Amino acid sequence: MSKPSILVVEDEEKIARVLELELEYEGYSVVKANDGLEGMQQFRENSWDLILLDVMLPGMSGVDLLRRMRSGGDETPVIMLTAKDGLEDKVEGLDLGANDYVTKPFQIEELLARIRAALRTKTKPKEVEQGVMILADLKVNEATHEVFRGKEQIELTAKEFSLLVYFIKNQRQVLNREQLLDHVWGYDYYGDTNIVDVYVRYLRNKMDKGYEPQLLHTVRGVGYVLKDPR
Q: CA dist 107 to 22, 52, 118, Å?
């Protein structure tokens, strides 16, 4: 089983280092970002089980970073870290979709307990009702096989729909052709792997062409990823 991954976005190097050491000791995989812009880049490029996010950051504030994450439909658990203890600041973060709020200085045991609690309640991708998955303005209803961009319904073939469902269930993860073949076409498929590229093109033309933001991206030399680039 892989280690749960945690992104620590914290500009105070001593605090970030302590968090890194404590979290790694507890068995987590940790990456640090020392400002909001680097934090946003890490968020966009990788998939995280939880994010520890300082409120006051250079480049982009933690609140702005959280706002961009949630506006794209991402539901990665976020625990805000702040030197502020005012009720107004906590309410703002929680209203934007933070899962929890910890005020500095904090006891590491309390933070670890809050991390465990947040990871237990993790849901991905976001489901507003049974069978409905959302990314930006894209809605996929697995039960009814309906797909919408905003208010416009997108008509997909059965194979295109299966491909999109696999993408949205693994949003922000880069998927290679072999993974897509195995999960969408089946392990017993022995045809040309170029079929993946063909169907990705079909899917992109239907669900991305003419819409903003574009959600289905090519990662050269690796595969494809469904994500909100904002």
A: 11, 15, 17
